[in-house]
Design goal:
By secondary structure, the protein is α+β, with helices and mostly antiparallel strands. The chain folds into two domains: 90 residues, OB fold (Dihydrolipoamide Acetyltransferase, E2P); 307 residues, BirA Bifunctional Protein, domain 2. It is 32% helix and 22% strand. It is built from 15 helices and 16 strands. The strands form three sheets. It has an eight-stranded mixed beta sheet. Helix 5 packs across helix 7. The two termini are 42 Å apart. The structure holds one RNA strand.
Amino acid sequence: MSLKRTEIAKILANPTIGETVLVKGWVRAFRSNRFIALNDGSNFGTIQVVVDFENFDEDIIKKIGFHAAIAVTGELVESQGKGQSLEIIAKEIEILGECNLDDYPLQPKAQTMEFLRSNLHFRMRTQTMSAVFRIRHGVAFAVHQFFNDNGFNYIHTPIITGNDAEGAGEIFHVSTFGANEAPLTEDGKVDWSKDFFGTKTNLTVSGQLQGEIAAMALGKIYTFGPTFRAENSNTSRHLSEFWMIEPEMAFADINDDQNLAEDFCKYLIQYILDNYQPELQFLDQRIAKLEKNMKAELRRPMGLIDTLNFVVENDFERITYTEAIRLLQGSKPYKKKRFEFPVEWGEDLAAEHERWLVEKKFKKPVIVIDYPKQIKAFYMKMNDDDKTVAGMDVLFPGIGEVIGGSERETRMDVLKARMAEYDIPEEELEWYLDLRRFGSTPHSGFGLGFGRMVQFITGMGNIRDVIPFPRTPGNAEF
RNA sequence: GCUCCUUUAGCUCAGCUGGUUAGAGCGCCGGACUGUUAAUCCGUAGGUCCUAGGUUCAAGUCCUAGAAGGAGCGCCA
């Protein structure tokens, strides 16, 4: 009977010293014509294969190169060298897939993220990307675990929707009409009633409003899916297609919302600390190397793992918008006129202001609540002062806003007035108003940018490097 | 959308106030090496200097336009 392949992770977890094993994987390094570092994706690291090259065909030895796919049959033994406890003494080696290094773009050394972005189909093979995407999976898993353990139901809200009234950004239209082929109405406008769905449709910008429908029946729900914004945003924190997590809770006010947001963030980070130490250590060292030659003020105040531990172990700072403005007006950069944008009650906080609050003043995540009504969405609950709404932003060091959420407005007259202020026709959101007409109750929720959370946990500088196939203005490769 | 920066070998970069055969490190390839850990040592090859115009006796270097990439800002998650 021929030997069955064993995954490297299983060998390392439960070694059977002295037994003959078959492993298959990709070569990460081949040193001294003798030592192969082999990775098969089952774990982050490698297993060492020792080759007595005198006993092998020269043709085979030559093909054992960087990122070649090979199969090795050999004896599992305790390693004679330092740096690993186990190794496999190769008896047979089969080349499964050669990797011609004359033409292969990747090299066995550190490469820039910009270069790797131009080779998206190869970049996951690098150690950095391997660490990032393993952690990305871990965070996604932890999202479901957290909500499941806390009694939330996962709701699939639509990706294509006729909902055009959310005001969360520019939309991508969805149509089966070809360019210049759209049928027109008598007055010369495109006749959307003849389109596939019989109405004008677009890709979703948020699942929140549909999430509220579900929360009014199931109590606690969450969505976790792709969202699309056609904004011409060119930053390291924005994607045109990104994944968002949106919990919604019935019978919950803005305080419950803040508690959920804080517990949730801490849970995700703790889960990765508990389950992805090798990956985190690699990313931590990677950042340390990158920052080695940087000026002290440009470096991170703490290492990656220390930062994650710090966030988990400390309470988030919670302040009102009004308080934030007061603090900012008393700040050194304000007095020295270093801020580019005005700090005035009624003006939205700019990135420089958020950064000062998070990185200079409190040095930890900050939740800001009770924003002026004019800078927040129509569905947020109006506070008793008639000036502010029960909205919140959760601000993280380095990446700014990770969460935006609110208690929702449930009073029919107030909601209608707010919609009028935003020129949202009532007939478009009759169903949303119905939720307030029939069995309405206070409820709250938020949206967490999944990529931003992964960015924070991995310490990656650009959100394009934490999603396999980034979609940004002018780029939709693969 | 706005501002700034970058584009020279496979990769990362150097190339001064324009001057004649365009450099380095790493990688690749060839060789050496029986315990390596980003292995090490020796050697070879490798370049439309992003594109198109222009200025000049002479342009990688200066000017104009365009393209691609990056950083920051705005919008947000």
